[in-house]
């Protein structure tokens, strides 16, 4: 059992293969946090807590004359607002009398075999091979009006601890939940670095590392989506931690809407970590008997450095988060029409492109934006999900048949959550959008957002989508979302429930995705939000791949994909070869380099096949064969970051290694060409030290490749790249 309970001392110890987490109920019923780190003896770690009389840190009444007991200083499992703890807190409740002061005390606990699930929310699940247990600790507020059930999922062999919280109103009156974080971890000792992934549209998930100083350092989103600006995944590491060594904690939020993540270093140099729903735009009404479930957060710990931490998430998200056929089935190599023709196409043009694509070995043709309603420009059409046969010059079935006749699958783009004012749907249902009465809404890309908190709205859109999907053979759907949400108001809810709309919107989105995936289990879904604006673990539960960025420039993508790799597997990263000069940056890069970068993802093309020269065709054909050959190694192998983009300006490298160490693919992109320079060397990782490998016809012991390194060929053109296959001798 991964959960050890010492009933006499009221200690709960959660153990995974390599990590350990501990809590203890103290003499006043407060649930303290006592340890999170490397697995060891399940000793009572509360000896590490300092009790002292601290001025201006008050004492709870039950502590009587004991001035050394203060919640302002103690490490707690779920600190609450108004308890005399003046740090950032996890829970804030507005009581029926309008006050907020709150205290929680332990009531009971319950063990459950297997991993819990949450109603309407994505969660990590355990497979048959996984050892998983659930602990639910129940606290009650001292005014006896509600329970807080703390959920812990312990996935031993995955080295994960998952968390969620349920707040249950068992009193007679209405409460308002103003904040309910999913995770709090109070680390009493040590200084930490936080690593977050910030950015903007076309520059998502840029890695930044900074020491947590006294005060609050937070990242988050109140855009109604997880956002391009900050990702709901972050790391906490020791200041010395590197890719290969040192203590690292990971925190990942399985949620696609607003979030807040923060590090708060207090007056005693203790660091509190919080992660959960953003309290802005959030106020949840709980009537008598109602419960609220906070989204799941996933924590991991390793003392083996950042790369090992990433690999924990990669494996778990591939095996225990993604679902459906394409969790394991090979994803088809696609050609997407967006950067080839944008909105300017007809059926004939698409079929011509598809013919070229088929000749090159592409397996799926995706018709992006522009096939529906009145959609020649992006000012109109969203909301009217019926095929514009006049524009296409044919019906959808005819188009799909023509593509299938070429031996390819067919896919299609939707943006279900948005609407243009110039659409039949808006003219008919102007109250179906998020819009504050009496105020003109903020527009984004000429569009408004449909009120997905409403079932009738969702049902209408889902029916339209199903109608299209049933009208032709369609194997792939790209689910896009192209603006930040604003003007949060639902015409279907009373004033006292408006604080629920942002969260209900995301629940509505999940509900619709669940229905869609249940009805079309073989459909490959790709998430997208202007590229990677909703690249989060919540979406991965429904869409096994997500378009990583609208920036397809291979060199910019290095940083975007590098940052993404910290928290998400390669199999999640939508990545395509596009044309040159690149549409976003104007940069020219070799076709082979664009392929090298796109192969660190789901791999596909997004260019006008008419622009491909006869000389380029065999290259593309070879790239496709190569990707298929190494598919399993790339998608299911261990992923290693070999260079830090911030520190190595000359080249950038990464590596895919089979779990048994028998094979690897080394990828390197030259960032600078140097005249008359010595060759650069890169140290490989993940090989078996005592095995012999063949690299480009030469034999090397694994230890030599890992300790001495491999000499990268000399780059002779700008941004040249190298894909170097490494195979154990006698396995080739
Ligand atoms: C977003 C997506 C693109 C493309 C366009 C279509 O920007 O990220 O890939 O689908 O929308 O409008």
Question: How is this structure best summarized?
Answer:
The protein has 732 residues and is an alpha+beta fold. The chain contains 14 helices and 39 strands. Strands 6, 7, 8, 9, 11, 12, 14, 15, 19 and 20 form a ten-stranded antiparallel sheet that branches. A nine-stranded parallel sheet has the order 29-28-27-26-23-22-21-31-30. Strands 5, 10, 13, 16, 17 and 18 form a six-stranded antiparallel sheet that branches.
What features would you describe in this structure?
With about 725 residues, this protein is α+β, with helices and mostly antiparallel strands. The protein has 3 domains: about 5-320, alpha-galactosidase from lactobacil brevis (Beta-galactosidase, Chain A, domain 5, Distorted Sandwich); about 330-415 and about 455-485 and about 510-630, Aldolase class I (TIM Barrel), CATH 3.20.20; about 640-730, Golgi alpha-mannosidase II (Immunoglobulin-like). The chain is about 20% helix and about 30% strand. The protein is built from 14 helices and 39 strands. Strands 6, 7, 8, 9, 11, 12, 14, 15, 19 and 20 form a 10-stranded antiparallel β-sheet that branches. A 9-stranded parallel β-sheet has the order 29-28-27-26-23-22-21-31-30. Strands 5, 10, 13, 16, 17 and 18 form a 6-stranded antiparallel β-sheet that branches. It is globular and about 85 Å long. Bound molecules: alpha-D-galactopyranose (GLA). Alpha-D-galactopyranose binds near residues 413, 482, 528, 547 and 550.
């Amino acid at each position: 059992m991964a959960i050890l309970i010492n009933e006499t001392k009221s200690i709960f110890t959660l153990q995974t293969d390599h990590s350990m987490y501990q809590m203890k109920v103290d003499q006043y019923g407060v649930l303290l946090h006592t340890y999170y780190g490397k697995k060891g003896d399940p000793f009572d770690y509360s000896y590490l807590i300092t009790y002292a009389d601290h001025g201006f840190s008050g004492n709870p009444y039950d502590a009587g004359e004991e001035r050394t007991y203060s919640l302002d200083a103690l490490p707690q499992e779920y600190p609450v607002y108004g308890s005399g703890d003046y740090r950032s807190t996890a829970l804030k409740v507005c009581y029926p009398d309008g006050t907020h002061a709150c205290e929680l005390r332990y009531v009971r606990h319950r063990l459950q075999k297997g991993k819990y699930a949450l109603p309407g929310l994505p969660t990590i699940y355990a497979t048959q091979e996984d050892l998983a247990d659930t602990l639910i600790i129940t606290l009650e507020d001292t005014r006896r009006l509600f329970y807080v059930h703390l959920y812990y999922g312990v996935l031993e062999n995955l080295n994960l601890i998952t968390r969620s919280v349920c707040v249950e109103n068992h009193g007679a009156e209405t409460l308002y939940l103003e904040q309910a974080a999913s995770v709090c971890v109070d680390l009493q000792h040590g200084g930490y670095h936080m690593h977050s992934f910030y950015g903007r549209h076309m520059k998502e998930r840029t890695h930044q590392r900074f020491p947590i100083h006294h005060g609050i350092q937070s990242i988050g989103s109140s855009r109604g989506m997880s956002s391009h600006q900050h990702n709901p995944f972050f790391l906490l590491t020791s200041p010395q931690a590197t890719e290969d060594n040192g203590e690292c904690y990971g925190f990942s939020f399985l949620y696609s809407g607003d979030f807040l993540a923060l590090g708060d270093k207090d007056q005693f140099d203790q660091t509190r970590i919080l992660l959960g729903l953003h309290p802005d735009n959030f106020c949840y009404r709980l009537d008598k008997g109602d419960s609220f479930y906070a989204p799941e957060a996933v924590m991991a710990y390793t003392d083996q450095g950042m790369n090992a931490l990433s690999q924990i998430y990669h494996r778990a998200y591939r095996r225990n988060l993604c679902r459906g056929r394409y969790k394991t089935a090979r994803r088809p190599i696609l050609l997407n029409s967006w950067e080839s023709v944008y909105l300017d196409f007809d059926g004939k043009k698409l079929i011509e492109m598809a013919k070229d694509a088929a000749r090159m070995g592409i397996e799926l043709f995706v018709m992006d934006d522009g096939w529906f309603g009145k959609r020649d420009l992006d000012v109109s059409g969203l909301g009217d999900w019926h095929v514009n046969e006049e524009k296409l010059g044919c019906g959808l079935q005819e188009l799909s048949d023509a593509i299938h006749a070429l031996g390819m699958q067919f896919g299609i783009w939707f943006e279900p959550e948005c609407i243009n004012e110039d659409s039949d749907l808006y003219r008919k249902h102007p109250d179906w959008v998020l819009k504050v009465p009496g105020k003109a809404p903020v527009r984004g890309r000429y569009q408004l957002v449909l009120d997905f908190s409403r079932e009738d709205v969702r049902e209408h859109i889902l029916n339209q989508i199903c109608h299209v999907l049933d009208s032709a053979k369609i194997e792939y759907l790209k689910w896009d979302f192209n603006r930040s949400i604003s003007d949060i108001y639902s015409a279907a809810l009373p004033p006292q429930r408006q604080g629920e709309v942002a969260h209900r919107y995301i629940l509505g989105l999940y509900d619709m995705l669940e229905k869609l995936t249940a009805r079309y289990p073989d459909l490959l879904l790709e998430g997208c939000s202007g590229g990677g604006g909703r690249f989060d673990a919540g979406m991965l539960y429904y869409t096994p791949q997500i378009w990583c960025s609208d920036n397809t420039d291979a060199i910019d993508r290095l940083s975007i994909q590098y940052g993404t790799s910290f928290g998400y597997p390669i199999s999640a990263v939508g990545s395509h070869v596009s044309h040159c000069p690149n549409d976003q940056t104007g940069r020219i890069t070799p076709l082979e380099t664009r392929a090298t970068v796109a192969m660190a993802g789901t791999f596909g093309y997004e260019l006008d096949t008419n622009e491909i020269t006869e000389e380029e065709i065999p290259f593309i054909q070879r790239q496709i064969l190569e990707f298929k050959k190494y598919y399993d190694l790339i998608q299911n192998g261990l992923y290693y970051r070999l260079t830090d983009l911030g520190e190595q300006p000359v080249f950038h490298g990464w590596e895919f290694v089979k779990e048994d160490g028998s094979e690897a693919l080394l990828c390197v992109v030259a960032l600078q060409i140097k005249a008359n320079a010595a060759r650069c060397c890169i140290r490989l990782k993940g090989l078996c030290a005592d095995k012999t490998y063949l690299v480009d016809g030469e034999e090397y012991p694994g230890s030599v490749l890992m300790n001495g390194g491999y000499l990268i060929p000399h780059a002779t053109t700008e941004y040249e790249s190298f894909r170097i296959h490494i195979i154990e001798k006698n396995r080739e």
